[in-house]
Amino acid sequence: MHCVTKVELSVCGSNLLDRDVASKSDPFCVLFHDVDGNWVELARTETAVNNLNPVFGVKFQVDYHFEEVQKLKFAMFDEDKCSTQLYEHDFLGEFTSLSIIVSNKNLHRPLILANGKPAGKGAITITAQELSDNRIITLTLCGRKLDKKDFFGKSDPYLEFHKQGDDGKWMMVHRTEVIKNTLDPVWKPFTVPLISLCNGDVDRNIKVLCYDYDNDGGHDFIGEFQTTVNKMSEAQNGVEVEFECINPKKQKKKSYKNSGVIIMKSCKVGIDFTASNGNAREPSSLHYINPMGSNEYLSAIWAVGQIIQDYDTDKMFPALGFGAQLPPDWKVSHEFAINFNPTNPFCSGVEGIVQAYSNCLPHIRFYGPTNFAPIINHVARFATQALQQDTAAQYFTLLIITDGVISDMDETRHAIVQAAKLPMSIIIIGVGNADFTAMEFLDGDSSALRSYTGEEAVRDIVQFVPFRDFRNAPKETLAKSVLAELPQQVTQYFKQRNLSPSNTMPE
């Protein structure tokens, strides 16, 4: 499974270098990503006029690939000319980051100049928000009788939307366009991810602030109000919802009523299907079941399962998945029953596994990272119970089918070294065209596998086979290669423990 998720990155700066003589810098941020060793621009924010501590309204949305090393660079520039060419603007510093951004959620780092020296006290803060909820919200707003703030004109109003975090702090999530010289603005409809606006919680507080835009960056505060998506959603089918725009400093005056009214003309919540990651209905997904009713996962299950099931008396197999978000709370699981019955994950024969797999796909969201250790330890618990019987009656084979680079290599190595002491073997089939170097390392054919503590596996229990080598070969060829080492691994284990097969035939 190819693990991709959409991530939204919010950027703000602090204590930026002041490059302008008569005023402060006019910073904007540019996001670059690494393409074959070259930095290529992905997107840029708006310009924050005359501001050394900008909070940018434009958000960066990037596809985050869990199994890949992704290099991103955030560069700050001071806008000097009306030009899109970056060399026309003064460089204020940059920060180069990897996936550490996502793991930290809120990252604060100093900016560095091109010569490697600190950019004064300049710093950048990057906040990552995973867009796992694919609902979107479209808002249409206008204002009426807003306060007049300009001496020679009316006001140039715009709105800022802020959500309240779990820590109680407010974070800006959207800024509208500026409507020039009016007290009755009509803003363009805009759409934002629901998770960006309120973390997917329709009852979470949202603060809306109204400002009068000034060219010198000293924007005048008009007023504010608080609401929720639930409240805004009342604006549907021609019904409008009004919010009084309040300036707290003016509220003390007896004659003060409000600083105008913000009207929610329309609020619509929908689902953005294009944001769904790893859609099994798309031909680009390895889980896509083609018109012939197959994919690489199913081919691997059939090829190996049809042979190995004959060595199981009741042909009841536990089938587990990992690296997916499960309903109803969409938490990530690295060890779940694909029949959604955790107390009885067993499937009847290969047909039962295939059926459970096909039924499971529409109800989960592919995710990551690719962690093997939980699944290995799960089977190892059963093998440990069998070990207590001190007979050669049971041996466990774990078949892992994956397309990913292992994320928990240290934990996986340790789990395999411990499992080598138990009556179990591990077969790994790699599907797709990923880099499977790590899988071959786990195979241990060239040298004994060691855990991160230095402990050596007492025997080789892993067999890895890349499916692509057998894509056009008869399925019997794949099965033969996959199962080649299994008989020796079984007999080696029981010989080491001086155990002989039971003479009792199963009924």
From TrEMBL:
Residues 1-111, 118-243 form the C2 domain. It is found in: Cell membrane; Cytoplasm; Nucleus. InterPro entries: C2_dom, C2_domain_sf, C2B_Copine, Copine, Copine_C, VWF_A, vWFA_dom_sf. CDD domains: C2A_Copine (cd04048), C2B_Copine (cd04047). One of its GO terms (cellular component) is nucleus. GO terms for molecular function: calcium-dependent phospholipid binding; metal ion binding. It comes from the Eukaryota. Calcium-dependent phospholipid-binding protein that plays a role in calcium-mediated intracellular processes. Exhibits calcium-dependent cell membrane binding properties. This is Copine-2. The lineage of its organism: Eukaryota, Metazoa, Chordata, Craniata, Vertebrata.
